[in-house]
Design brief:
The mean pLDDT is 96. The protein has one domain: 5'-nuclease (Rossmann fold, 3-Layer(aba) Sandwich), CATH 3.40.50. 29% of the residues are buried. 59% of the residues lie in helices and 13% in strands. By secondary structure, it is α/β, with parallel strands linked by helices. Keywords: Hydrolase, Magnesium, Metal-binding, Nuclease, Toxin-antitoxin system. One of its GO terms (molecular function) is metal ion binding. Its cofactor is Mg(2+).
Length: 125
């Protein structure tokens, strides 16, 4: 299962439901986009280190950006940006899930719901 950035934010805010969900998931993945977003939000080197340690301690695997993911993300932007406001980061995360044939868990279902071939698991904090 691929985790959207918002799930990590819920865990950082102390949401026990999100932490339990992550803990109970056996195979944990995130897109390189999510990894970069998490590091970008860190305010200092200590927070960078905490992000990396959290991901490592839970065995998260970062999925790389590939040519196919880039192509699919660009198609999503063409199809959905004007009608739903889909942003580039979300398109990359959705494309990563789709290209790897994995479900994406997010509490921002409205960002991803229009993408028909995406296996979306909505998380309610």
């Amino acid at each position: 299962m691929i985790f959207d950035t918002d799930i990590f934010i819920w865990v950082q805010k102390g949401n026990e439901k999100a932490a339990k969900f992550v803990d109970q998931t056996e195979e944990r993945f995130l897109s390189i986009q999510t990894y970069m977003e998490l590091l970008q939000c860190a305010r200092n080197k200590v927070q960078h280190k905490n992000v990396k340690e959290f991901l490592s301690s839970y065995g998260f695997i970062v999925l790389p950006f590939t040519e196919n993911i880039g192509h699919r993300a660009s198609i999503y932007i063409e199809e959905y940006t004007l009608s739903t406001g889909l942003r580039t980061g979300d398109a990359i995360i959705a494309a990563t899930a789709t290209e790897n044939n994995m479900a994406l868990v997010s509490s921002n279902a409205k960002h991803f719901k229009p993408i028909r071939e995406l296996k979306l698991k909505s998380f309610k904090p």
